[in-house]
Specification:
136 residues; mainly alpha; 7 helices; endoplasmic reticulum; PIG-M
Length: 136
């Protein structure tokens, strides 16, 4: 989902529409399939859990103290993620890999829960970046 802005500006309107329809239909079929198998437990564990998650242990997040404190500012934590990922997707030049790397870094860095395993999300994109021209 965070890569949609970058994909939208780099594909023609027709190609993006086809990509969006195929992606959305695949997502909906898979959600329906697993919902039929596991019911509401699937939706809770796969999607709803992330909106309510507060994990103070091993958390490197910029929201660490807010998650542990009484302030419930973390419910708006998705706004910096959304703004940064969209901005970087629309404004970054270069190939797919550097743009996806920047968007992933912004998404991970502004996540309200950030544990060591989250670094894998952007770390796996590093090998592809030097192969792209016009990184920045």
């Amino acid at each position: 989902v965070i890569y949609v802005p970058a994909i939208a500006v780099r594909l023609s309107h027709r190609d993006f529409l086809g990509f969006a329809v195929l992606s959305l239909s695949t997502f909906m079929v898979l959600v329906a399939f697993f919902y039929k198998l596991y019911g509401m437990e699937f939706l809770q564990c796969a999607y709803l859990h992330h909106s309510q998650r507060k994990d103070p242990q091993h958390n490197f997040s910029v929201y660490f103290f807010l998650v542990n404190g009484s302030a419930d500012v973390t419910r708006f934590a998705f706004l910096p993620q959304l703004c940064l990922s969209t901005y970087l997707g629309l404004r970054s030049s270069g190939g797919w890999a550097p743009v996806f790397l920047l968007q992933t870094l912004a998404f991970v860095a502004t996540n309200k829960v950030l544990t060591a395993q989250y670094f894998v999300w952007w770390f796996c994109l590093l090998p592809a970046v030097p192969l792209s021209r016009g990184v920045w």
